[in-house]
Amino acid sequence: MSSTRLETLALCLQNVLADKLANVDQQLDQLIITVPPANLLPVMSVLRDHPELGFEMLIDLCGVDYSIYGVEPPSEQGREGKRFAVVYHLLSIRHNRRVRVKAFPEDDEFPVVDSVIDIWPSANWFEREAFDLYGIVFTGHPDLRRILTDYGFIGNPFRKDFPLSGNVEMRYDPDQQRVIYQPVTIEPRQITPRVIREEHYGDSE
């Protein structure tokens, strides 16, 4: 999207949504708006229904964990040190433009935002994925359960503090004739690749 079109869209968003936005930014030729969780549903409804905006399609939704083992990334306006974010990618077919929306749940220990499934039904599986992988809860979702991991899975594997080997492992027990779960028995190890080169390899003759 050209810089002129981005500026026009930014101005329109600020005029229509006013104080409901925490921040408006531009990165990689795309407009990014940050919305407080309390304003999420009203803002999303306006983004879809306002004739000058018309973002009728939710093309993606994902979670983000900003925690990097205690090392904070550069401050982002509207984030205020919050650990988790939900990112929405919206498309206006009518106006041929996109916008990215970010919402930062208030509680890092129990991240919660409202479900947008009543605005875009396509959010269904996206929200379940963010719930499964990041532990973000979507209030109002009609069927919020894991979608990629097993029902007995412990933890959220896309969180930065999730162990690489996981918390539990599963195997088939021939005596019990069923799959069982048990604590991980894999010993962590560091693999150093062995490089073998012939003598004088690469030397010019």
UniProtKB/TrEMBL annotation:
Domain NADH:ubiquinone oxidoreductase 30kDa subunit: 33-167
InterPro entries documented for this protein: NADH_DH_suC, NADH_quin_OxRdtase_su_C/D-like, NADH_UbQ_OxRdtase_30kDa_su, NADH_UbQ_OxRdtase_CS
Domain of life from the UniProt record: Bacteria
GO molecular function: NADH dehydrogenase (quinone) (non-electrogenic) activity; NADH dehydrogenase (ubiquinone) activity; quinone binding
Protein's UniProt keywords contain Disulfide bond: no
Keyword Lipid biosynthesis assigned: no
One term under GO cellular component: plasma membrane
Compartmental location: Cell membrane
Cross-referenced Pfam families: Complex1_30kDa
Gene3D superfamilies hit by this protein: NADH:ubiquinone oxidoreductase, 30kDa subunit
Membrane topology: Peripheral membrane protein
Key words of the record: Cell membrane, Membrane, NAD, Quinone, Translocase, Transport, Ubiquinone
EC number: 7.1.1.-
Catalytic reaction annotation: a quinone + NADH + 5 H(+)(in) = a quinol + NAD(+) + 4 H(+)(out)
PANTHER family: NADH DEHYDROGENASE [UBIQUINONE] IRON-SULFUR PROTEIN 3, MITOCHONDRIAL, NADH DEHYDROGENASE UBIQUINONE IRON-SULFUR PROTEIN 3
Function: NDH-1 shuttles electrons from NADH, via FMN and iron-sulfur (Fe-S) centers, to quinones in the respiratory chain. The immediate electron acceptor for the enzyme in this species is believed to be ubiquinone. Couples the redox reaction to proton translocation (for every two electrons transferred, four hydrogen ions are translocated across the cytoplasmic membrane), and thus conserves the redox energy in a proton gradient.
Subunit composition and interactions: NDH-1 is composed of 14 different subunits. Subunits NuoB, C, D, E, F, and G constitute the peripheral sector of the complex.
Family: Belongs to the complex I 30 kDa subunit family.
HAMAP family reported for this sequence: NDH1_NuoC
Listed name of the protein: NADH-quinone oxidoreductase subunit C
Naturally occurring in which organism (per UniProt): Nitrosospira multiformis
Organism taxonomic ancestry: Bacteria, Pseudomonadati, Pseudomonadota, Betaproteobacteria, Nitrosomonadales
